[in-house]
Amino acid sequence: MKCSTRSLLLIAASVFALGLSACSADDPSTGKDDSCVVNSDCADDEICGSDGNCVVVSDEACSADSDCTDIPEPQCNGDDLVTYGGVCDGDDAQTCTYPEVNTETCEAGCTDGACNPDPCENVTCDEPPAAQCSGNGELVEYEATGTCGAGECSYDRVSPAQQCVHGCQDGACLTGPCDAEACDTPPAPECDGNTGIVYADTGTCNEEDGSATCSYDITYNNCDYVGGTCDESTGTCTDTVTETGGAMIVEIMANAAGSYESGDEWFEVVNDSGSAIDLSGWTIRSGTSTGTVEEHALTSAPAFAADARLVFASSADPADDGTVTPDYVYAGITLNNNSDYIELLDSNGAIVDRVFWEAGTTLDGKSRKLDPNATDNDDFADWCPELDSTYGDDGEFGTPGAANPPCAADACADVTCQKPDDFCNADGNAVQYTLDTADCQVSRFNNPYCDFMPQEVDCTDAEYCLTGVCEAVTGTLPSPGDIIFTEFMGNPSAISDSDGEYLELYNTTDQELTLFTLVIKDNETGNSQDSFVVENPTATIPANGYVVFAADTDSSLNGGIQNAYLLDDSPLKNSPGSAGLVISLELQDGTVIDEAYYGEPTAGASQQLSIDAYTGGATNVAQSNDSDANFCDATSADSAYTSGDFGSPGVANVSCAPIQ
């Protein structure tokens, strides 16, 4: 039987009254327990209620909801738990219906009309998996507390994973040499010169070639700063200087620029005693812990009012242009660029003030100043270079006679790093810069610097450092007597000394010899000595032949001398003294190849060694030029020598008979 929508209410009422099905028994159930539009959308024992949901019908007569007690058991609809309630419904003959009254989603699912219990209830996740080794040498460990889900515990990995330096095995990192090293046995204190070295009690372990090596932080106690002596047993300073105070050194120009550096040195002192100071009998003292101490007793001492500042200088014109007038000019004291100190002693010999500086402190052409905010001048960290204010003809930096500006907040602010040229150091090795660019940095002395990573390259005995490169010395170097001096033009007349001076060498052997790296010098001492190295890698002297070293290699200026090598620092003096000089030719190791006598020259004529003394079967050739006996003045000029003076540069000499 088919139920029409129009007769829905009448049929429903009849069904309720008779307790019969309103539709045919073979009307299939939709299997739906929720929404509906018509009764056919619901099961056989349900009708479509007014709220659009299927409700269970009953033949129970009722007058109130409480009469409806035949409530269906809760049912599962997927993971939802559906419960029902009794409702007394109908217009005339009221009967009980049992609609859905609640739908609950079960977190763990629904079974047999009930929500399944929570599988994580009473589950404690506190047993993480054991640590494991990964394939890349990491130790994988898990957090101690995990999270329960669906009755199962999961644990997060500890992050980051531990990298096993020595490998991982059986869930553990293998131990290394440092694991059992406490690094609590530092070296004993020591002294390096006058600087104490004290090691920290606890160090840091480092692995080197499979062994444990401990390194310890070091405290350096430079005892020169306090005028003391380093104690070998403790690395500390003893017998330190006591300063009475009252006058304080606040600025020092120890590394002046220009050609007359020592004459441009100065330092500045401030009277911070609160009253005038009588400097009569005071002494300036300077020196190093290992060098000679220099002292200067003040004469005609200047007045020194309270809060005044005085400039003490090594000359009356330290600026080289008259713009700086010192208050006092001292003598006999040189301020070293590397390491030095200045002390001011009063008339009783007590040290009023002392300032020390070490190597690396001073910058060329820049004074060292005390920051005006500093309360004393004993800590080098309170000193800095003057980088802004200039004075004098050479554009040096400093403020002599004026208050010090504060130290720069950024010493690198106006510094542009430019890569320097490679060079040769005092040890004859090449110093080469490995970086093309660098950033400005500030040293512990507050000095700006650019680190292009210099690297020292050791030149072997078969090499010579030239402009920062170890050049191979090719060819055969001479042995003693192989090359001798045969002619000197020390006082040209027709042309200037700077163009016309020359000396001549002769090769007494039958093979070509190299001149590269040979040293030509005189026997004077100190600043009077002239010495230079032949730094031309191609310089050679032919077998049984001559070469000329000239002050000017331009043949149009030197009198027509062709193919001359440069006489870079001429030892040929116009007035060598009545005893004459000794001009020598040496190897780099000091081996003397030849020594020759050089007497006072005659203007316009060279001093020639008689050709009979070194050719034509002559004996004792190497000694033939040791005195003036075998020398004579040239009385004519070789045809190629066109200076207007007399000489034979590069060709055979004349005979100066008799030969001795």
Describe this structure in words.
This protein is mostly beta strands and 660 residues long. The protein has 6 domains: 8-115, no CATH class; 132-174, no CATH class; 190-238, no CATH class; 247-397, Immunoglobulin-like (Sandwich); 423-471, no CATH class; 473-633, Lamin Tail domain (Immunoglobulin-like), CATH 2.60.40.1260. The chain is built from 2 helices and 54 strands. The chain is elongated. The chain starts with 7 loop residues before the first helix and ends in a 27-residue tail after the last strand. 29% of the residues are buried. Mean pLDDT is 90; it is low at 1-32. This is Lamin tail domain-containing protein. InterPro entries: Lamin_tail_dom (IPR001322), Lamin_tail_dom_sf (IPR036415). Keywords: Signal.
List the helices and strands and how they pair.
Blueprint: H1 8-18, E1 46-48, E2 54-61, E3 75-77, E4 80-84, E5 87-89, E6 95-98, E7 100-105, E8 110-111, E9 114-115, E10 132-133, E11 138-140, E12 147-149, E13 152-154, E14 162-163, E15 168-169, E16 172-173, E17 190-192, E18 195-199, E19 204-208, E20 211-215, E21 218-222, E22 229-230, E23 237-238, E24 247-253, E25 266-271, E26 283-287, E27 294-297, E28 309-313, E29 328-329, E30 340-345, E31 351-357, E32 368-370, E33 383-385, E34 390-391, E35 396-397, E36 423-424, E37 430-433, E38 440-442, E39 448-450, E40 454-457, E41 463-466, E42 469-472, E43 483-489, H2 497-500, E44 502-507, E45 513-514, E46 519-522, E47 531-533, E48 540-541, E49 546-550, E50 565-566, E51 581-586, E52 592-598, E53 607-609, E54 631-633
Parallel strand pairs: 28-29, 49-50
Antiparallel strand pairs: 1-2, 2-6, 3-4, 4-7, 5-6, 8-9, 10-11, 11-14, 12-13, 15-16, 17-18, 18-21, 19-20, 22-23, 24-25, 24-32, 25-28, 26-27, 26-30, 30-31, 32-33, 34-35, 36-37, 37-40, 38-39, 41-42, 43-44, 43-53, 44-49, 45-48, 46-47, 46-51, 51-52, 53-54
